[in-house]
């Protein structure tokens, strides 16, 4: 009987570094934590911004890495070819699908419109009952506070049920993220 493969954690995050040093620090710590736990990093295959930080840290600490990048972003996001697995897709939608299908949990670090798109797609799928994978927001220095307020507003105004809020766990630190993932992934 073969052993169950180690969990894979999809990380959605910015292709830019953001303005606060804490964002890159937490991205690196997330990559290191995934490696220390023996968990595979699944991410957008870029070598820039927070994407590059999390991937380089995970690789340096010995993690298996699975990157997915669409053709049109290969140059812009500096496709990182030295990953354990490197997949080039035709478009953004296919990228999200491949990342999602190859992960057991989703973590969202600070990021921009692309990260929000990725977050809301997996959250919508969860709300519709299409999956039960854990979704975790790493709320570095309160970055996601406006998003959390918006989600609460959407529910309060009757445009979504409480499942919108119940489908996401918010954590403040990488240590909290690790503990939450350990509980969620068993």
TrEMBL record:
It comes from the Bacteria. InterPro entries: LOG, LOG_fam. Keywords: Cytokinin biosynthesis, Hydrolase. GO terms for molecular function: AMP nucleosidase activity. The keyword Hydrolase applies. Gene3D superfamilies: 3.40.50.450. Its EC number is 3.2.2.n1. GO terms for biological process: cytokinin biosynthetic process. GO terms for cellular component: cytosol. It catalyses: AMP + H2O = D-ribose 5-phosphate + adenine. NCBIfam families: Rossman fold protein, TIGR00730 family (TIGR00730). Belongs to the LOG family. This is Cytokinin riboside 5'-monophosphate phosphoribohydrolase. It comes from Rhodobacter viridis.
């Amino acid at each position: 009987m073969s052993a169950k493969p180690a969990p894979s954690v999809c990380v959605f995050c910015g292709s830019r570094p953001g303005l606060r040093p804490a964002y890159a620090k937490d991205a690196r710590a997330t990559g290191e934590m995934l490696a220390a736990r023996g968990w595979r990093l699944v991410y957008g295959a870029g070598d820039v911004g927070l994407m590059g930080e999390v991937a380089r840290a995970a690789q340096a600490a010995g993690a298996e890495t699975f990157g997915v990048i669409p053709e049109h972003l290969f140059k812009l996001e500096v496709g990182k070819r030295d990953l354990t697995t490197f997949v080039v897709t035709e478009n953004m939608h296919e990228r999200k699908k491949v990342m999602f299908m190859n992960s057991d949990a989703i973590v969202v670090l600070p990021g921009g419109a692309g990260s929000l798109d990725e977050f809301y797609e997996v959250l919508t799928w969860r709300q519709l009952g299409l999956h039960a994978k854990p979704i975790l927001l790493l709320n570095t220095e309160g970055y996601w506070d406006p998003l959390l307020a918006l989600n609460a507003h959407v529910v309060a105004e009757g445009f979504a049920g409480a499942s919108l809020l119940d489908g996401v766990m918010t954590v403040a630190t990488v240590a909290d993220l690790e503990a939450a993932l350990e509980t969620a992934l068993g």
